[in-house]
Design goal:
The chain has 100 residues and is mostly beta strands. The protein has one domain (11-97). 13% of the residues lie in helices and 37% in strands. The protein has one helix and four strands, in the order ββββα. The longest helix is centred in the C-terminal third of the chain and has 13 residues, at 85-97. It is elongated and about 45 Å long.
Amino acid sequence: MPPDLSVSELNEYRLWSEPSISSMALLVVADYVPGEGESHYGSPHRFPVATYTFNARTHRYQLRDQYLAATRYPSLDEPDEIRVLEQQRPRVLARLKRGA
């Protein structure tokens, strides 16, 4: 069964080319999830970051790694665009290279 994946205006997703990890692009998603005591607007949020890699056997993307970013980032109530993934890129790649 493929992973449940949805993207909204409060999420950020990117396709990254990283041939040292996968011959196909990595799909990386930062998904806004309100934390305890956080309001939807007016406060920075921690974003879960999930990385999907292509499985050549099943011809589908599958979840390879996920974690909760330690840094709090503003959601769309402050900037015009969510910008989590470029700042998380070094951590995402390090985790994948360690075999996460």
